[in-house]
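Progress note, project year one: complex with zinc ion.
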Amino acid sequence: MKILDSRRAIMWLSVLILLGHVTAWSQSPAPTHDQPNQTIPDRLTELRDAFVTKAEKSGIKCRIQPPTIVLTDIASFGNYDPETNTLRTPLWSQFKHQEKTLFMSLAGPNASDEAAQVIFERGTHSWVFIHEMGHWWQTCVNANVGRSHYRVEYDANRIAAAYWREVNPQLMESLASGFDHILAGSPNPVPSGQDPEAYFNHNYEKLAGSPEYTWFQAHMIAGVNAEVPPPSFLQALYEPGK
Ligand SMILES: [Zn+2]
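Model obtained:
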């Protein structure tokens, strides 16, 4: 689990770095429905509970409790551990100077601490957090059984995209354009003539944590966003992507 966690940390970090390079994305903070004085722990608890409530509208109750949120300065920006039913994510205030510097540079020249925090919050506490809630759901309903590495990741992205399309379409549009830029700006690591999905599954151990892994996440998200008609959130939960 430790190795997997650090690999995933690198993966999300490179996604956030690349998203930060999308100028339009970083300069136009998407609106949120946050209460102005709401603390981040309260907001994350509310976000978790909103996800659970929305998922249970289907009439099926998850066989496990909503995950315990642990706010800790882990190397990863988000991780769901099915063994302890824990979703770990860092708080901006827990970051050391060096970690903040990265987001300051993403936010642009002479960026304020607040501007850097906006980048951090959007990537980590919106996209990654809900992606990890998707993994919680997969654990709830044993959706991972018989699914390949690619499909498990694809479905978590599909759940996250469907969630944000319904809850905050503007944020989802902004995230989608960020991921499109990543795809357009990164070299395709799949050898010509090979299928990306088969290649990913075959080379999973080698790819996890590499810059190529980011390309695959962006490729999956582009696939998710190209689905016509787009699945509703409940469809994304109950009918895995093809
Ligand atoms: Zn994942």
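The first strand starts at residue 68 and ends at 71.
Residues 113-140 form the longest helix (28 residues).
No further modelling is planned for this target in the current period.
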